[in-house]
Amino acid sequence: MNCWDQKEYIGLGIAAYSYLDNIRYGNTSNLERYIENKDFTDEKELESNKIRIVDEVQTLEDRKKEYMMLGLRKIKGVKISKFKEKFGENPIYIFRNELEKLVKENLLIVDGDNIFLSNKGLDLANLVFEEFI
Fold this sequence. Notes:
Strand order of the largest sheet: 1-2-3
Structural class: alpha+beta
CATH topology of the largest domain: Arc Repressor Mutant, subunit A
Low-confidence stretches: none
Radius of gyration: 18 Å
Strand content: 15-25%
Order of helices and strands: EEHHEHEHHHEEHH
CATH class of the largest domain: Mainly Alpha
Shape: elongated
Number of helices: 8
Largest sheet: 3 strands, antiparallel
CATH architecture of the largest domain: Orthogonal Bundle
């Protein structure tokens, strides 16, 4: 759930991903390279030997969009109050154009403190997620 809640997590093993300090890292998918270098403990050694690869450094805007996309993957959707707590802004205002369009298309429901996929939205979820990419 840490992944879906945009919290930090550490992935262990070949091709595993981690998310720390708004940076997504991936371990090498090359088994031989991973085994050869399993004893590295220094962060710089890991990165310089291509054992850990920085996949994405997220901006604040990236994090807001991803929070919406990941949150909408959950049945309960996105809690507006949690978004405000995390980012200090209202997602209803930030994403007003996207939300208006998706509600008109009956793909999303905004109800009280929640934004979540409608039944139709569950079937067409990728169309919803595209609005936040």
